[in-house]
Amino acid sequence: MSNSHEPAWLDDVKWDAQGLVPAIAQDHQTGRILMMAWMDREALALTARQYTAVYYSRSRQRLWPKGESSGHVQKVHEIRLDCDADVIVLSVEQLGGIACHTGRESCFYRVLKDDQWRSVEPVIKDPKDIYG
């Protein structure tokens, strides 16, 4: 449940058992799906307040401001909630043109073809050059 410091609209979101909701980042100009990550109440509230994407890292168990280590910040243009209230879509401007930690524009760069996943998009920047 919310506390007195949180906006009431957070209660309209159907959070999963871990208190998370999936969030899809979509390019605000092209409509391309860039990535999917998780948000907790604090991440969604911060995203709405700052209009830059903040996610929740399940592996690190902490807030993850997108671009904190890569510099590839997502400026949020719009936040949408689906009909079941259990998925968020962020319409974003992806700074640097790279959303994926592999150095690609999108995390969805593999296509199933002939019973194999095939990479169909180039690496824009080597991850070693992004993360060191």
UniProtKB/TrEMBL annotation:
Top-rank lineage group of the source organism: Bacteria
Cofactor(s) the record lists: Zn(2+); Mg(2+)
Keywords: Amino-acid biosynthesis, Cytoplasm, Histidine biosynthesis, Hydrolase, Magnesium, Metal-binding, Zinc
EC number: 3.5.4.19
Cofactor, free-text remark: Binds 1 zinc ion per subunit. Binds 1 Mg(2+) ion per subunit.
Coiled-coil residues: none
Key word Magnesium present: yes
Metabolic or biological pathway, per its Swiss-Prot or TrEMBL entry: Amino-acid biosynthesis; L-histidine biosynthesis; L-histidine from 5-phospho-alpha-D-ribose 1-diphosphate: step 3/9
GO molecular function: phosphoribosyl-AMP cyclohydrolase activity
Binding site for Mg(2+): D82, D84, D86
Residues bound to Zn(2+): C83, C100, C107
Transcription recorded as keyword: no
Catalytic activity from the UniProt record: 1-(5-phospho-beta-D-ribosyl)-5'-AMP + H2O = 1-(5-phospho-beta-D-ribosyl)-5-[(5-phospho-beta-D-ribosylamino)methylideneamino]imidazole-4-carboxamide
Domain (Phosphoribosyl-AMP cyclohydrolase): residue spans on this chain: 35-109
Any Pfam family: PRA-CH
Compartments it resides in: Cytoplasm
Functional description taken from the UniProt entry: Catalyzes the hydrolysis of the adenine ring of phosphoribosyl-AMP.
Subunit architecture: Homodimer.
Family matches, as HAMAP family: HisI
Family under the similarity heading: Belongs to the PRA-CH family.
Designated name of the protein: Phosphoribosyl-AMP cyclohydrolase
Native source species: Gilvimarinus japonicus
